[in-house]
Amino acid sequence: MLTKSKESVSTTLSSARASAARPRSQATPDEALMGRVAEGDRLAMEVLYARHHVRVFRFVLRLIGDEALAEDLATEVFLDVWRHADRFEGRSAVSTWMLGIARFKALSARRRRAVELLDEEIAKTIEDPADDPAIVLEKNDTSRVIRNCLKRLAPHHREIIDLAYYHEKSLEEVAAIVGIPKNTVKTRMLRARMRLAGLLRDAGIGRE
Questions:
Q1: How far lies 4's CA from each of 50, 55, 58, 76, 137, in Å?
Q2: Is residue 1 part of a domain?
Q3: 43 exposed, middle or buried (CB, 10 Å; 0-12, 13-18, 19+)?
Q4: pTM of model > 0.70
Q5: CA-to-CA distance for 9 and 83, rounded, in angstroms?
Q6: Number of alpha carbons in the 13 Å side-chain half-sphere of residue 169
């Protein structure tokens, strides 16, 4: 196994970022690319980065709500992919494996910020009587209301919705990423949808 030094990791990831915007062939499966990355193939790493960095970043961002931190954590995910590609066993899709790494990093970061995030979430639920008409209209914007309702879901419900709808993962893949049984995923999905429906009704969306 080729030893990947810290300098090698940084150089490869920088090269991957620079090439992410360039058109690339999608013919090579992710699993084959992972095998090449495990052997130290930087071009393969660039292709994986170009294919997956946006979805990894957005997934982390939805979990932690901090763009700068999400970018840092997404970078760490791809550093781990470069360093530990040989640990990928092919029991799930490469994207599922990456999102599993991303979830672990995001939850670790979120635990470190638990008190701060709790204060922020509470503050978001409090109506400010000083809001002027323009701010009230903005808060009533449908897309904004939906985003706010999603943020009010419990973290373990929000991530299920995120994986299933935004990332189009199957129940099996969600179970693998989150590390819970498939039936538990089904239960959480049902409760999350019921809770979200109630929040949207309360916000005046979907009310008959």
A1: 20, 25, 27, 15, 54
A2: no
A3: middle
A4: no
A5: 7
A6: 31
CATH of the domain at 27: 1.10.1740.10
- At 36, list the tokens: 């090449």
CA distance 119 to 188: 25
Output the CA angle 63-67-68, nearest 5 degrees.
120
Residues 145 and 182 in one domain: yes
pLDDT digits (tens, 9 = 90+) for 116-156: 544 454 444 444 555 555 555 555 566 677 778 888 889 99
119 alpha-carbon distance from chain centroid: 22
Domain boundary among 70, 86, 113: 113
Q: Which residue has the tokens 């049984």?
A: 181
